[in-house]
Amino acid sequence: MAKQEGSAGQAIRGLQRITAQEEMLRREKITLLRQELAKVRAKGRMIEHELRALGDPEAMRSVGWINWEAIYDDLPARFSARDVAAISGVGPAHVASIVHRWKRHERITSTGRRGEYRKVHRA
Q: Deepest of 14, 79, 105, 111, by most Cβ within 10 A of its Cβ?
């Protein structure tokens, strides 16, 4: 009888091992799919950006959510409001509100020339 319990215990441990492997593979698949999705989304944003930069009316209407952090990171140390508008594809009023927010958070400062700014680098 002890021999039967031993083989049943091994079967359960074997099943637990298989279940753990399946869970590990599931997590790996999720990680790979998330990476692939991030690549596809980035490619889509790049295409939208190019269409907006070319002035495509449909792309301008369907701007949707804009990652302003990414836009800020893409800007050079000195930039103009027109640069922000060209990268983001939004109108001047929207650019003005974003620039105002960046100034309020002390991320940029005016250069003295109208519509030109520079990034503030904090230590």
A: 79
